[in-house]
Amino acid sequence: MEAFHYRYHPFAERMAEICRSGELGRIEQIDTWMCVPLPFFKNIRYDIDLAGGATMDVGCYAIHAARLLAGGEPRVTWARARVKGPEIDRAMEADVAYPGGAVGTIRSSLWSSELFSIGARVIGTEGRMDVRRFTTPQLRGGLKVTTPAGSRRERPAAGTTYGFQLRAFVEAVRRGGPNLTPPSDSIATMAVIDATYDAAGLPRRGT
Predict the structure, then answer these.
(1) Closest CA to 172 of 161, 180, 183, 184
(2) What CATH number does residue 29 fall under?
(3) Is-contact 77 95, C-beta < 8 A?
(4) How many CA atoms lie within 13 A of 44 on its CB side?
(5) pLDDT one-digit tens code per residue, 111-162
(6) CA gap 168, 181 in Å, rounded
(7) C or N: which end of the chain has fewer Cβ atoms within 10 Å?
(8) Does residue 43 sit within a domain?
(9) Residue 40 banded pLDDT, cuts 50, 70, 90
(10) How far is Cα 107 from Cα 152, in angstroms, rounded to an integer?
């Protein structure tokens, strides 16, 4: 079980449910991003020997959320990195194409003009969903759905992402409960990370 804690909060499933429900019509665009401030370049997240870089750190969350909302695997068509040194991305932007014809962007940053921004946007033929702070919905997170019928806001269920994750882990160990982030899911996310680094002209992380 990979520790994508946000995935175990009911808010994550609710985002995906809205995309699958047909309320937004045919999905045409999915954008996700996670940008945080970390200007301390001696931090291990900037160490190439430890698989450092924005895409490996915060970018994996933006990629995972894109996969969740799309219900399929994004194909990287273009990527550009802002680097700290020759191999470490301090920020990354990638264009992707999704099964079914939708397109979008995946952005991540440890240090860029966007100091703290985490969210998602899904646009369909019948409406759109704007999501704020999907990784920490308990901290002023939420979503807004806008359709010709009007708009509404939804707030997350009470509780922390780590609390929901811990309960899911205990349930999986003790009673064989569902594992939402198994190794196969990790491999699929890593494939998109590799493709992003390839497209940006940077070396893949790890061995």
Answers:
(1) 180
(2) 3.30.360.10
(3) yes
(4) 2
(5) 877 778 999 999 999 999 999 999 999 999 999 999 999 999 999 999 999 9
(6) 11
(7) C
(8) yes
(9) confident
(10) 26
SS3 at position 31: strand
Number of structural domains the chain divides into: 1
- What residue spans of the chain are helical by DSSP H? 10-21, 54-57, 59-70, 161-175, 183-200
The answer to whether position 55 is within a domain reads yes
Nearest to 109 by CA among 101, 121, 117: 117
184's CB contacts (< 8 A; 6+ apart) are none
Placement of tokens 């490996």 in the chain: 56
> Which domain does 21 fall in, by range?
5-200
The verdict on residue 104 lying in a domain is: yes
pLDDT at 207 over 70: no
DSSP assigned state of 57:
H
Q: pTM to 2 decimals?
A: 0.96
- Across the range 105-116, mean pLDDT stands at 87
In a domain, 162, yes or no: yes
- Contact yes or no for 44/110 (Cβ under 8 A): no
Report the chain's terminal Cα–Cα distance, integer Å.
Answer: 21
